[in-house]
């Protein structure tokens, strides 16, 4: 009789504990929410290196009797620079470039050409996200040559002047940008000793380029 009573009590206890045990089994373990992915905010701050190509046309005066020359031609080269973007989206930078060129013209026995040039400029812009319009200006220099084909004389100089311009740059990834730019250059007037004449050169430069930002 005692065995029957004990068995009954055990059965009742087991039945009473079964729902709680089942609840423990069914209760899922707490899971962590996946981490939020924060997209990086693009900034123009950093160093960059790039290449460009374009076209230039200009005007100059040469000779004892002033001869107007209008040199023009293609150019290509590279640039290196740095930008810093402030909290108000103003971007301040500096850039130096070097260009190989075939800018030349001849008239009435005179020939003028510039076979390479470069600039060192400040840049100031305002960032609209990944679009950066800017103005620029600074020092310009170029290797120029003047020839008097009648006398068989030639003389070359490295002329130094100034440049101003502007452009717009677009970042299509966090590291790669493309740009279009216009510069006006004035290399002043120099005296060419071997020929005995003065010559001056101004030029308009349009070019497109690509940069890699570090």
TrEMBL record:
Highest taxon listed in the record's lineage: Bacteria
Cellular compartment(s): Cell outer membrane
Pfam families tied to this protein: OMP_b-brl
Domain Outer membrane protein beta-barrel, chain residue ranges per copy: 10-214
Keyword tags: Cell outer membrane, Membrane, Signal
GO cellular component: cell outer membrane
Main location: membrane
SUPFAM superfamilies the UniProt entry points to: OMPA-like (SSF56925)
Signal sequence annotation: 1-22
Family designation: Belongs to the Omp25/RopB family.
Protein known as: Membrane protein
């Amino acid at each position: 009789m005692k065995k029957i009573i004990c068995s009954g009590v055990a059965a009742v206890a087991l039945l009473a504990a079964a729902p709680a045990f089942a609840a423990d089994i069914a209760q899922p373990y707490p899971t962590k929410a996946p981490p939020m992915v924060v997209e990086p905010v693009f900034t123009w701050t950093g160093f960059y290196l790039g290449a460009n190509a374009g076209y230039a046309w200009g005007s100059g005066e040469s000779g004892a009797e002033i001869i107007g020359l209008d040199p023009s031609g293609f150019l290509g080269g590279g640039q290196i620079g740095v930008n810093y973007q402030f909290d108000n989206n103003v971007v301040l930078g500096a850039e130096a470039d070097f260009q190989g060129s075939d800018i030349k013209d001849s008239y009435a026995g005179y020939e003028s050409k510039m076979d390479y040039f470069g600039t060192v400029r400040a840049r100031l812009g305002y960032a609209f996200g990944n679009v950066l319009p800017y103005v620029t200006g600074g020092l310009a220099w170029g290797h120029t040559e003047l020839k008097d084909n009648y006398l068989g004389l030639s003389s070359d100089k490295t002329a130094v002047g100034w440049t101003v311009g502007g452009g717009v740059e677009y970042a299509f990834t966090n590291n790669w940008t493309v740009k279009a730019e216009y510069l006006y250059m004035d290399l002043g007037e120099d005296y060419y000793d071997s020929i005995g004449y003065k010559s001056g050169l101004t030029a308009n430069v349009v070019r497109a380029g690509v940069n890699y930002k570090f």
